[in-house]
Specification:
The complex is a heterodimer of chains A (222) and B (292). Chain A has 2 domains: 127 residues, D-3-phosphoglycerate dehydrogenase, domain 3 (60s Ribosomal Protein L30, Chain: A), CATH 3.30.1330.90; 72 residues, 2-Layer Sandwich (Alpha-Beta Plaits), CATH 3.30.70. Helices cover 29% and strands 35% of the residues of chain A. Chain A is built from 7 helices and 11 strands. In chain A, strands 3-2-4-5-6-7 form a 6-stranded mixed beta sheet. A 4-stranded antiparallel beta sheet of chain A has the order 9-10-8-11. In chain A, a hairpin with a 2-residue loop joins strand 6 and strand 7. Chain A starts with a helix and ends in a 5-residue tail after the last strand. With 292 residues, chain B is mainly alpha-helical. Chain B has one domain: 2-methylcitrate dehydratase PrpD. The longest helix of chain B has 23 residues. Chain B is globular and about 60 Å long. Classes of the chains: A alpha+beta (222), B mainly alpha (292). The interface between A and B is large, with 40 and 61 residues.
Chain lengths: 222, 292
């Protein structure tokens, strides 16, 4: 569903909605996977990101997103220097990713304390983005909602119990998608919500005992 | 949101209302947000657009590579051409201004994209000034433009990497033409013809920026895109119609984009980017960017 505020927007630092604003949003979403600014980031640029990224500030915008800056933040211009001061060590490489992602794509490998995440972000045009995989699970995280991602044992009734925890906090679920590598293996859930998700929800979900890993991703687009 | 301009026109005309009204209602329904909240977001966008125009007119912005900048001021203050003092001249300068700010990593509204961000503010704020249109009607026009862009996103593309420049400055020209036609008193049907008239004039337009940077020809293509939008507005308001329905024009834009060689889709592999001078300039400028 396309929103007119996606079309008339975002308000952003130029020059490219896909290579600058989209890159920043990918960084913001990926940052959520490790729960904050990572200490280490490997950014592997694919396709047009690899070919024309430098002149578009794609490098600056991705790092800015990892630092938690939004696409209209003029600090994007100085993000590489700011990252150095804030202890974010980053490295860029050029690559060709498998599975034929969108021509504007990047694989991010992030570390923050004992948390790590590997994700592929795609910039779809006009600043719209998606994460298409997280730690090898195929996903479709667009950042149009407040998003909860988690892995849990693949067991009967798990969705009902998770939904009950969210209902307790008056969080309305917009979409829910489940993927797993094989029957009986861990399930990976992406739950997009209308309401802001407090960090305490993560603790409540882990308290169920069979939820291994929970992350809250911010809404990054209108 | 509507998936066809024709559906939105039918919905608006059945109630004797505007495309802006049905667009805002559909957005409110889709997003579960009140219309006033959406209008407020559009007001903020309009303020950023006006600020970008004003900044660009100062002539102080140079792009990251140094390839573009200062031409909006040149058009404003240089020798007078035959159209000096007309809204047409003013709109061209505004389009250059916004796109120069964008190329300099300034703050703009991507509408629909950053590469095509000059057309819509130029046409709407320029015509609003010359025709003394109140701000709330310009906000309505942004909603109409959003509706048109949403349909193009669904049916074709808004990405130069997918559809060439016809999907960026071309789509922007269609959005600006339809929105301004309604803003200046045209009916929803006339606005639809304006979209078709603008978009037909940009079919096949390739995306061929030097070095892949949103600079050259992007700055100038926003000015010529705005000119095409003005031509479409003038024709549509005179009652001229376009025989191919607007949604079919949009569909064919998508089809042309999909069959466009990858060289012409933002890869700097063809078009102006691949001319001898285009390659030389890109090489020199990219070396300069890397040196910082």
């Amino acid at each position: 569903m396309v929103s007119i505020l996606d079309i008339i927007g975002p308000v952003m630092v130029g020059p490219s909605s896909s290579h600058t604003a989209g890159a920043c949003r990918i960084g913001l979403l990926a940052r959520g996977l490790v729960g904050g600014t990572p200490q280490e980031a490997l950014l592997e640029l694919h396709g047009s990101f690899a070919r024309t990224g430098e002149g578009h500030g794609t490098d600056k915008a991705l790092v800015a997103g990892l630092l938690g800056f939004r696409p209209d933040d003029v600090r994007i211009r100085d993000a590489l220097d700011i990252a150095e001061r804030e202890g974010l060590r980053f490295r860029f490489e050029k690559t060709t990713l498998d599975d034929d992602p969108h021509p504007n794509a990047v694989r991010l490998t992030l570390t923050r304390g004992d948390r790590t995440a590997v994700t592929v972000g795609e910039s779809l045009g006009a600043g719209r983005v998606r994460l298409s995989s997280v730690d090898g699970y195929p996903v479709d995280v667009t950042g149009s909602y407040h998003t909860l991602v988690l892995t849990a044992e693949d067991r009967r009734g798990s969705i009902a119990k998770i939904a009950a925890v969210l209902a307790e906090d008056a969080i309305n679920i917009a979409t829910l998608r489940l993927s797993r590598r094989a029957r009986g293996q861990d399930a990976f859930m992406v739950i997009e919500c209308d309401d802001v998700i407090p960090e305490t929800v993560g603790d409540d979900l882990r308290a169920l005992g069979w939820v291994h890993w929970v992350r809250v991703l911010p809404r990054v687009s209108a | 949101m509507y998936r066809a301009i024709a559906d939105a026109i039918r919905a608006a005309e059945a109630r004797g209302t505007t495309l802006a009204t049905v667009a805002l209602e559909a957005e409110a329904r889709d997003q579960g947000r009140p219309v006033e909240e959406i209008r407020e977001a559009l007001r903020r966008a309009l303020a950023v657009m006006r600020d970008a125009v004003a900044q660009g007119m100062t002539g102080e912005h140079r792009s990251v590579s140094g390839l573009v900048g200062g031409d909006a001021a040149k058009l404003q203050h240089g020798a007078a051409g035959p159209l000096a003092g007309t809204p047409f001249h003013d709109v061209l300068a505004r389009a250059l201004a916004v796109q120069e700010v964008n190329a300099a990593m300034g703050v703009i509204v991507a509408a629909p994209t950053a590469g095509g961000a000059g057309v819509l503010p130029a046409v709407l704020t320029g015509l609003a000034q010359s025709q003394a249109v109140p701000d709330e009607m310009v906000v309505d026009a942004l909603a109409t433009a959003g509706l048109i862009g949403a349909v193009v996103a669904e049916r074709a593309s808004l990405s130069g990497a997918e559809g060439g420049c016809q999907a960026e400055t071309g789509a922007a020209a269609g959005m600006a033409a339809g929105a301004a036609t309604e803003m200046l008193g045209g009916s929803p049907t006339q606005a639809g013809h304006a979209v078709a008239l603008a978009q037909q004039g940009t079919l096949g337009l390739v995306c061929d920026p030097l070095g892949g940077l949103v600079e050259l020809p992007c700055v100038f293509r926003n000015a010529t895109g705005a000119a095409i939008a003005l031509a479409a507005i003038e024709m549509a308001l005179a009652g001229i119609t376009f025989a191919i329905p607007v949604d079919e024009v949009i569909d064919v834009m998508g089809e042309i984009g999909r069959s466009m060689d990858v060289r012409y889709r933002e890869t700097a592999g063809g078009g102006l980017a691949a001319t001898p001078t285009g390659r030389r300039l890109a090489r020199e400028r990219l070396v300069q960017i890397k040196r910082g």
